[in-house]
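Extended Data, panel c. Modelled sequence:
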Amino acid sequence: MQHEEAGGRWPTSVYGVGDEPDPRFSLANERTFLAWIRTGLAFVTAGLGVAALAHFAPATGSRFIVAAVVMLSCGVLCGFTGFTRWARNERAMRLGTPLTRPSVLPMLSVILLLIAGLAAFSLLS
């Protein structure tokens, strides 16, 4: 069924185009979005925990603050990325075009590996 308008659903840039896809694909896309949100919340929680540790280690507190800011930024980036990926993929399914590739995922993986490596290095030295 062709949708000329979004039918009251938001965002209209997604729901106002193309044909309604198979619900299984839309629900899978939604689950992926929720996984991005969970990952973002984990980054935010870790960032807040690391920031709290800065108060207990005044000599190295600045390192904790930097790590906390990086983790909080990654959390915000995950939330933003999750929504934009969901919208692009839902729109692509409605229009029958290829899905977008995960451009931010490799960058977040590298950042997480760097944080883990720096944490391990600081614990060993």
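The chain has a mean pLDDT of 87. This feature is highlighted in the accompanying rendering.
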